[in-house]
Design brief:
- It is a single chain.
- The chain is built from eight helices and five strands.
- The chain has 222 residues and is α/β, with parallel strands linked by helices.
- It has a five-stranded mixed sheet with strand order 1-2-3-4-5, sandwiched between helices.
- Helix 1 runs antiparallel to helix 8, helix 2 packs across helix 3 and helix 3 packs across helix 8.
- It is globular and about 50 Å long.
Length: 222
Amino acid sequence: MKFLEVEDGLGGHIDASYRRRVEQEIDSAKTEREIVPFFKENFILVRNAFAEAWNYAGVGWEFQPGSDYRPDFVVLTAKSGAWEAHFVEFESPKASLYIKNGEPAKALRAAKKQVDDWDNWNRKNKPYLRKLLAKPVAMDLPSLTSGGYLLASDALKDPDVYLSSCYHVVIGRRRSLSPADVERKESQSRSQTWGSPEIVTYDRFIDIAKHLANSTMDVTRD
């Protein structure tokens, strides 16, 4: 795995039609396996969806520390005093989030269980996790946090440099959610505990694509 920054390429030209192209790809995909390659080519969408710190924001995939541990994407970010690793699991855009009684549907239950397993592994193997995350960081990337390190990879390995693990499950579409489902999802986000995943629909990427397209148009007009 290698962490890529947006300067390394977007995998597609962003113009006024970008939002429509993203939505068409999502609409046509039946499974997560069909849609993940598109997001590897357009990883700016993944970065903008989950990055919360901007001293550094890199996106990687094919991160597999164990046979049963393979998130679809890892978004690694840095701010002045800490690093954040965002582990992202994709489920089908066609999957339901909830069943009629309000309980999580099968795909969402499985994704949550998977994230729980990841979080347990990360907690038990924190020094090894740091080494795995540091390895694909560019060798010449300067340290982006406090602590006196010259290189970012060295700072990441230091147990005294704060590193948090965040989890995200991408599943389904907004249009499949009833008003009660929306309220339930928002309530779960507000009551999110340490190690529990953020649940988002694929529509977040469509919103981001719209914003990127509009930004491009604004630059063009100027």
